[in-house]
Fold these 4 entries.
Entry 1:
Amino acid sequence: MTQTIGEILKSARQLKGYTLDDLQQITKIQKRYLIAIEDNDFDLMPGAFYTRAFIKQIADTVGLDGAALLEEHASEIPQAVVKTTPSTTYTTTSSNRSRLNKNKSKWSSVSNTLKNYFPTILLGMFIVAIIFAIGQAVFSNRAQRNTPVTTQATTQTAVAAETTVATTTTAAPEVTSVTYSYANGNALYYIANVSKFPLDVKVLNEARNALWAQISADGKVVADGVPATNQTVTGSIPEGTTTIRMDFGYTPLGTITVGGVELTIPEGSTATRIYITIQ
């Protein structure tokens, strides 16, 4: 009797001597997804993309050829849907061709006219350039007579500009601190002291696989994406928000920052959800 892809993966795991907990620790894939794959229950997976990615990662971990395994059991695995855009064919009728010929004739006439008047246009431009140069010389002579007044005005403008720059660069940061509180089940809890809004929350994926990441502010989704390796998902948290929530397809590997402050993830954590209370 032919084995299912889940049975093959389970047998290979057991031959390696790995428990489901061991496999979760190595691959960072949640245990409930590992069980669903071994049971061939793909309805419990977050989507076709993650199903194929997780199967390949598990297969490679237990010593199998993930790509070959996916190809051999393609009929068992959900396939991603690719949307196509129907092409549009344009037909040029005799009426259109006639209109194009008329336009070409019109532009040809305009081009010939410009060629005839080109020397005159150049001469006119040369005269305008001479008049402009004379005007600049006269203006420069007048400016030299008023040098003290001009210098004083320039100095005052520079001082005002320096004052503006100093005021701008002393703006308060978005966040003064983010403190880890505790872990509960599959979630981590933090407290953030925020000095201004809007507040940027960024998730940089440093794993080998794409990561689903969603950022919410008081239950309203502000960012949702699947960044590939070294790509970032960024959410802008509006003023008045009291709780930030982040959800991930699997335990995130990478850097998470809130207002420029990096979150400290406890060592060995397999959490896939983060709550941040704003003070």
Note: The chain is about 45% helix and 20% strand.
Entry 2:
Amino acid sequence: MSTWLVTGAGGMLGQDLLPRITAAGGTAVGLERSALDITDPAAVGAALDAHAPAVVINCAAWTAVDDAEAKEAEALAVNGTGPRVLAEACAASGAVLIQVSTDYVFDGEAVEPYAEDAPTGPRSAYGRTKLAGERAVLDTLPETGYVVRTAWLYGAGGGNFVRTMIKLEGVKDSLDVVNDQHGQPTWTGDLADRLVQLGSGALAGTAPAGVYHGTSGGQTTWFAFTRVIFGLLGADTGRVRPTTSGAFVRPAPRPSFSVLGHERWAAAGIEPIRDWHDAFVDVFPLLLEAERGTRITGR
């Protein structure tokens, strides 16, 4: 029975990963940010020595996209240096490393899904720092390093767009939501399943190292997605009104096109994630329960 180490285990994705690793027959060790500073080589080395993982999945990241514009050095330490430290430790121990990355490594201006080998061109500090982490892993671990890019994540274990919209539906008469950003809403549970399958394939020698895209199939916009949320809540979808990104100017530019292709999964014998709408309808009750619990607790 192999041991799997998950960094950033207290986050939304990490919370869904741990039980899936256990269900797949592995021993899951989750370390939250307070328990492991991935930028500290001594701490990382000690953690790998103590737990001797066969697979490390790095979910630790600086995810404050706008803050990264003014604090790029700090973001780079977590998103770039941290993965390099983990990769060097995995190279020394022989562990497989799976690095969770982002669609922000692309320029966001495509009109067709980005293939795994499409040229990168980040337009934000966040994207640049995540790309640095990708390169560190792939350069250090050419045979045992994996990068899984994802986007538009939602889950029951943390704050996200879906839970925000559920909350706002109860307090807003209407909502203006951007209709010029295209992407693939992706449930953390579905992504966690693929990460476990990929790690298992890596150990079995059936999953080639390199880049994979871990997003749902299909595509939508934030506006259309919100209308689906309102519909599942039994609310009037007409209360959701389309607007443009220009109405919500932020320090970091948002990609207008975050749709990723999934061809590489076939090389590992793994099915890509299902269509975003099918997944969302399936798991919406879990998200609604999580948000309603938050409301009750906060009263």
Note: Confidence is low (pLDDT under 50) at residues 294-299.
Entry 3:
Amino acid sequence: MALAPPPRRPARLTAILPVLPPVAVVALLALPVAPGGATNAGPADALSALVVVCCAVRLLRARRRPLTPAAAVILGLPVAGLVPAALHAASADAAITGLGRYLQIFVLVPAAVVLLLRGRADFRLLAWSFVALALWQGAVGAHQYVTRTGASYQGQDVRAVGTFGVADVMGMATVVSCGLVCAVGLALGRTAPRERAVAVVCALVLPVPLALSFSRGAWIATAVTLVVQLLLAGVRRAARVAAAVLAAGVVLVGGLGVGTVMLRERIDSIARVADAPDQSVTDRYTMWAAAAGMWRDRPLTGVGLKAFPEYRDGHASLALSSGSDTEGAGAAFRRQPLLSPHNMYLLVLGEQGLIGLLCLAGGWLALLVCALRGLRRTRAAGGRDLDCALIACGLLVWQLVDFVYADIGGPSTVLTAVSLGLTAWWALPATVHAGEAEHFLATEAAPREAAVR
């Protein structure tokens, strides 16, 4: 008697299986971080490492080369700067941990995302997961502000930090900003009207928790990115949206008086960073000068990976404080040491030298150029995939601007790796050939839409 064939998985489920691992990485960022816990890694980082291992195993089993030479060079360019800096690290432990972290965020996870995404449907699903995470973290942050259970700010526990707590005070701002960029890109695209309507609602809601994060760097990066997205979508469209936003701002702020005193003071402080900076800005300027001093000592290779804290005091002025005060969101008072310059470019310049900065930033600029070329091709073809182009360009622009005021660190950093993977998938359209991707990723799946642009 012949045995019945095993039940086949539903075609819809089979079609989205490859994109589920990066979506799960994003979803794990919704889990709460233990108060006072470690700030360098979390469950999402562990899952991202597993995703990379699974991709490597499938790559070896398939014996294919899914990356084109140009894509492999762009994605692997940071390695050329990391290796010399690792060799000059103060200790073997610092070299291994620093090298692993940089490879995870800027090379391995982005490459894994590129290999796992096979079409625009996968791209949009992952972008919507960014929006969903931003809505969740924003809702938690808004609740913290209303109930006075957030991180301490000017003596009151009102700063919205989401589930990341005071250990990663910038985490919620990063998540909400990326979700807002994705929502705006989806709203400006030419997808289904219902999908665009939902994206518009999300784009109107997310600025509220972003404002309550009191993160000046995230505000600036988001404002620049949204302007760029609107201009890329069309000058006339940008003018109409700008007029509507201006009118809404006049009504809300001028007419209804929306906005607390602390929020207005925080906004005003952006214009006073040069005239009368507060202690946090003074510390940041001092650490920037310290990173520049490290680079002048070793201009080519820097002082070594994870060596900034060791060389900081030797290059910093007396204006630098001993640390920043953190409290609230379920955590007790703690003096947080200043272990980085809060500027990714200066951190890389100080620890990896000019070689490291040129390799890392050069790869980002190459991705941006390729993404803009893809946008131009899309507009010439009628703009069917305009949403994907705006999301890819927007996420990279946001990251490039935000890195002026921030660097990697904390559980939310893995979102940077996934967003770079989204940008790389769009910017390098010939990375995965349709036939190779089918053989490499879906040996038992039904035919799916090819990712050919």
Note: DSSP finds 18 helices and four strands in the chain.
Entry 4:
Amino acid sequence: MGIVYVPYHHDERQPDSSIPVRSEAQIHPVTPALPEGDLVHRLTALFADVADEVEADVKRGSTPVVLSGDCLVSMGVLTGLQRAGIDPAVVWFDAHGDVHTVESSSSGYLGGMSLRFLLGANYDLFGEKLGFRPLPENRAVLVDARDLDPAEAEYLRASQVKRCPVDHVELPDGPLIVHVDADVIDAGEVPRLRFPVGNGPSKKAVLEALRAVKATGRVVAMDIACPWDPADELESTRAELVGELVG
């Protein structure tokens, strides 16, 4: 296992203490000097570097684990796996749907579009530049997603994206990307989240679900998003959580 370390929330570099890593695995930091330009241009450059590291890790015979500050980095993960000759599905653990489009989002927050980008929405923004092939809807499983905006709920009702609770994850066939947003865990157990959501599953339940998915032997990459505010006093607690999610 190799850890691809991407300490960014969107294009903003986060302090290392924000996503603390205590692991014996080899760590590959992705901390480039991002180019001048708009947010999409800067993020595309970042995700291209992530894709390079993921591809290299796979070709070394490893299963990459990507740590980042948001869910958008998943585009770099998908791109890198496809470049390495893997055609994965995605299992997306998240308190939110992340299935907005540029047109449906009232806030314009790109992180809330992350899964939908993988499915081909607004492909001209990132997909064309990165060169990833969009996933068919029936190759995506959305786990938990207890906080949906009306436009997201409407999309999911009509789509082929499978939805399921943490205690009953239904997996697609073939190799799997497992994406975990830390906010899938009930907000009472994860302090200082950027977008906290209560009434969620416990950390124990999420970890049990992840162990069951990993036990299939079909996980080809993990993508763990830590969208929380920097807080040095929480470094030890967060290091423990990150370590448990990495497994």
Note: Strands lie at 2-6, 8-9, 12-13, 26-29, 64-68, 89-96, 140-147, 162-164, 176-181, 219-225.
